[in-house]
Amino acid sequence: MTTMNKGIQGLKGKGSQRTMLEGALVLIVIALALVIRTKLPGGELRAVSTIFMFIALSQAWNIIGGFTGYASFGQVVFFGMGGYFTAVVMLKFHFSFWLALPLAGVFAAVFAALIGQPLLKLKGHYFAIATLGVAEGMREVVINLPDLTGGGAGISVPIAGTFAKTQYLGDAGFYLLFLGLALFAVGIGTLVSRNKFGYGLRAIHQNEDAAAAVGINTVRSKVMAYSLSAFITGVVGASYVFQQVTIFPERLFDVEITVLMIMMVVIGGSGTVVGPLLGAIGLQFISEYLREHFTNVHTFILAAIIILAVILIPQGAVNYFREGRRTKDYSLLANIRRYRL
Amino acid sequence: MSTVPILETRGLGRRFGALDAVSDVSFSVNQGEILGVIGPNGAGKSTFINLVTGHIKPTSGQVLIDGKDMTGQAPWDIARAGVARTFQIVKPFNGMTVRQNIAVGIMYESHGTNRLSVALEQAEAILEEVGLGGSGDRMPGELSTADIRRLEFAKALATKPRLLLLDEVMAGLRPTEIEPSLELIRTLKARGTTVIVVEHVMKAIVAVSDRVLVLAQGKVLMQGGAHEVLADPRVIEVYLGHRYAKRQKGNA
Amino acid sequence: MDTFLQVTAYGLLQGGLLALVAVGFSLVWGIMNIVNLSHGAFVILGAYIAWEVQGWFGLDPFLGMFVSAIVLFCVGYVIQRYLINLIVNGPVFITLLLTFGINMALIQGMNLVFTADFRSIQTSYGSNSFEIGNIRIPLVRLLAFLLAIVITFALVAFVKRTRTGISIMATGMDRGAARLMGIRARHVYALTFAISAALAGMAGTMIATIETFDPSKAGKFTLMAFVVAVLGGLGNMYGALVGGLLIGLVEAWAGQYLSGTWVNGIAFLVLILVLIFRPNGLVGKAFYAARVEI
């Protein structure tokens, strides 16, 4: 009994030590990000902002896809709806961006709650495809409501002059905004990964019947997870729209944005917080590098990287190394065997 | 002790297409009782548990818990009313350690802690109780068959049930492994927990049950004391066929 | 009334083609539980191959489609055997990501080799048509439609009557048991995928004879295959036919009677409604309902 108590105290001690270490790490990262901001030219600032944006997006997808295990293949719909909400309220109702931003998140979250009720009853591929259908369908709706959304011709947010409640933030300003969003999303992800709600989601991922049997309201938990991930995605979409000024339905509902989110999560390690973070940084970095140095074939190389990564480390980098540490087996060949026919 | 039975079913039934998997099952369990449920394969035992715990919605009849009508309620509502279950085909949360598996149940119990760290501490006692002490950091995939069954048992205990439904937790265990499980059921009874044991292992049923319910083809065949039930020609017939039962009668 | 009939006829003809696009996709999904996001790229690749064959040898597309089929059969076999088979037991988003990666590689490859220009396959009889009553039926569309129907029925016959076909079905229903019967699951999976790719190639060739194509159209065909397969019920080949005709009709009517570009949203609306209300498809129960989870 005494040894057990000691063990638990050791556990606790380790926990608070870990929290302090992480706190210090976060502060260092923020300080570093702020220092970098003053050193980088505009183009580079924008590139780093995009990395921040994808950190937030991948964390958002991880909540529904990674923790809960529901492969949302239409996640971009929340990006687009948050974005269009912002554009419309800023242009037509003269909202300030800072008011539109949280409301866009709420708008996306409410939408997620509404479609989540029927959709989250679907499993596996069915859910993936239904959400994809929603995203593609919503793009058509936006295109077909030109009076409200500008239709296929796009819509522009007021950014300067007397019409604009909020002046354009500029490269440095958006850098800070996206940094903030990334920190916010990572924070939410960390919280979820360690609290009751997150453990409920993981239980649902592993086995929904067993989760329900221990008292988890699976329907409510799934809808909440979906809404939470939609909130983050919507807020990011809102910021993206303000940054881009003029937006088009094709870009804002582009299935490739969804796929990028999923790739970052899966390659980094789904269901972890660090995985999507590293996945977003790594993939965005590689993608930028390829675009610059192999303009013609960069998509081709990126595709090859995806194919190889999915086959060699299907559980994602972080999970691969965690398991390796557990089992002392880092063999890629053994790793391939897990999902092989 | 209250006079209202902790669980009562009235004419409970479930049809799958043309098949009556369970029909017209009426019975009750009092608090602190251990009820054994037996029946040949396909008798509807698992469906019966699923009906009580809300995993399958009944097509007829009622389920009352503490006298309150809970028919057709969601599984989590039933769980939060103090009814826990195990699954015949074990369903561990594979991506979590054994300790985390238990902590989930502890946190989602209606009066449980909301804090993960506290739940993880509390999990230790339950693991000790089912004989998984020291395995807390292992993954379910690394456990033996017997230990996986213990984990299934522990996950149910984590929700601090007043009524526990055990769906073949002893299947596939060696005789020496069965004894600790029986001991645990007796301990639970001593604490006032009501237990419904669905089992093929007759020895286990006889050892712990206060009363035995026999299901056959989805209906209640009979109920009574363990020895009385097992000696009944109708029960022998559903298990061993009517010719065997006749011969037994002839001999007697 | 004449307009309605004309539109209906077009819808049916288009629907037959959609069915051919979807039938292989549905087979792969039903048998292996893989949603092949590169299916549309196979369709386009088939179109390019027939186009090249016509350019080099002057081969008529209705013969060239067999060349497409053979090439895609090989491509499909290799992709399944040496790529997809490696992660077949993985979670949903792993298989989706892999096939998306393959899709990206194929499309980019086609962009590099063939450029992104619009193309189409021209034939001497391409503009011929005849009339039934007041309804004009373009010859090529009718031929394509009839071929699509014939091929679908041939596929059903193949799967139900031949030894290979039955082993495909058996593997789809219970892979474990099929393996115990001596069926080589890896080979059967690759074969199924190859057949699906070959059918996509044939469909692509026919599409190329009636409309323009370029690599960016691949996504549209994948989505169409989705919708039709879900409508028909996974792995249900007659279902794919019915689903294809239905979507063809709905799109044709919507194009005629709805304003603006709402028609593009119709397929998705149908998809979501079917998924929510009849997830097993409109045409009875798909065979996969009997599948044993492994």
Please outline the helices and strands.
The complex is a heterotrimer of chains A (341), B (252) and C (294).
Chain A: H1 2-39, H2 42-67, H3 76-92, H4 97-119, H5 124-143, H6 146-149, E1 155-156, H7 170-194, H8 196-206, H9 208-213, H10 218-244, E2 246-247, H11 249-252, H12 255-268, H13 274-293, H14 298-312, H15 317-327, H16 332-336
Antiparallel strand pairs in A: 1-2
Helix pairs in contact in A: 1-7, 2-7, 2-10, 2-12, 2-13, 3-4, 3-5, 3-10, 4-10, 7-8, 7-10, 8-10, 12-13, 13-14
Chain B: E1 7-16, E2 19-29, E3 34-38, H1 45-52, E4 60-65, E5 68-69, H2 75-80, E6 83-85, H3 98-108, H4 116-130, H5 145-157, E7 163-167, H6 175-190, E8 194-198, H7 202-208, E9 211-216, E10 219-224, H8 226-231, H9 233-240, H10 242-251
Parallel strand pairs in B: 3-8, 3-9, 6-7, 7-8
Antiparallel strand pairs in B: 1-2, 1-4, 4-5, 9-10
Helix pairs in contact in B: 3-4, 3-5, 4-5, 9-10
Chain C: H1 2-32, H2 39-57, H3 61-82, H4 92-114, E1 129-132, E2 135-138, H5 139-161, H6 163-173, H7 175-180, H8 185-210, H9 218-232, H10 237-257, H11 263-277
Antiparallel strand pairs in C: 1-2
Helix pairs in contact in C: 1-5, 1-8, 1-9, 1-10, 2-3, 2-4, 2-8, 2-9, 3-8, 5-6, 5-8, 6-8, 9-10, 9-11, 10-11
Task: Using brief descriptors, characterize the structure shown.
heterotrimer, A: mainly alpha, two-stranded antiparallel ribbon, disordered N terminus, B: 252 residues, alpha/beta, Rossmann fold, 4-stranded antiparallel beta sheet, 10 helices
Tell me how many strands of chain B there are.
Answer: 10
Largest interface: A-C, 47 and 45 residues
Please state the average pLDDT score of chain B.
88
Number of helices of chain B: 10
Taking the sheet with the most strands of chain A, its summary is:
2 strands, antiparallel
Largest sheet of chain B: 6 strands, mixed
Class derived from helix and strand content of chain B? alpha/beta
Q: What fraction of residues of chain A sit in β-strands?
A: under 5%
Uncertain spans of chain A, ≥5 residues at pLDDT below 50?
Answer: 1-12
- Sketch the topology of chain B as an H/E string, one letter per element: EEEHEEHEHHHEHEHEEHHH
Order of helices and strands of chain A: HHHHHHEHHHHEHHHHHH
The gross shape of chain B turns out to be: globular
Q: What portion of residues of chain B is helical?
A: 25-40%
Quaternary state, please?
A: heterotrimer
End-to-end gap of chain B? 42 Å
CATH topology of the domain at 1-73 and 201-252 in chain B: Rossmann fold
